[in-house]
Amino acid sequence: MKKTVFIDGQHGTTGLKIHERLNIRKDIELIEIPEESRKDPKAKEKLLNEADIVFLCLPDDAARESVRLIKNKSVCVVDGSTAHRVTEGWIYGLPELKKEQRNLIKNSKRIVVPGCHATGFVAIVYPLVAMGIISPDYPVTCHATAGYSGGGKTMIADYQADNVPDYIKNPRPYSLALNHKHIPEMTKITGLTHPPLFAPTVVNVYNGEIISIPLIVPNLKKKLAAKEMRATLAEYYAGERFIKVMPYPADDYLKNGFMTFTDCNDTNNLEIFVFGSEERILLSARFDNLGKGASGAAVQNMNLVLGVDEATGL
Fold this sequence. Notes:
Shape: globular
Distance between the termini: 21 Å
CATH superfamily of the largest domain: Dihydrodipicolinate Reductase, domain 2
Low-confidence stretches: none
Number of strands: 13
Structural class: alpha/beta
CATH architecture of the largest domain: 2-Layer Sandwich
CATH topology of the largest domain: Dihydrodipicolinate Reductase, domain 2
Strand content: 15-25%
């Protein structure tokens, strides 16, 4: 029997990508609000309670309101907003996080899709803390470079307008008060005792992302050189379909010495690179902010809940 899916916020960037991924599947029936009823809260409440799976692709306050409207305890909610990412009782939807994470996701009715920036950050930092390579109080710094689609419809319109001004075409660091909304989940999920110093930059490319974290080897709890660090992370993610630790050195995967930005686009893949030497390390994660950083992760979590192959539709 087909499972019914309702995408609340279907016309946003993430909602459209989820719809695109699910619309061609034979095991899913997408249920939608008729256009004339879109502003009718009763019509929305009805679908929220009828669906087997509900994806929330909404601003935070709207996501919280939709959850309040769900009275049917059998409905599984996969929330793509920031609203519940550090809320007790919600399961963090990164299946590769640790051995038991897939079962936690599979058996939950409340799942949060990690933030795009947080996805790369957590994939790198969580194993380092869990394995005692860095201490929880290590002063972690992180820089992200991401495509403008992560800013939603308003930012997309700015970049795709006629006669885009040069200041928008240039790389633009933002969240300069160092209070980006992904920091709480970055801190909590990885087990850090202090928030990381996180500095994101948006660039004039639609989608794609690179997260980079520098480490000073003498300050590590376990003093691993770059080659050993790569081997340790490769063992942690051995057998994973969507997270791959690239060879060290990674020269064959660079282009003229440059790490390119869009190689994981339109996939659910995340690639971890280890650069550096005996004293200094740079860890980088490359992925699609709309794939593993959003819609791909959402569908991957749904597949686990439904008990189908995790890579279905991905």
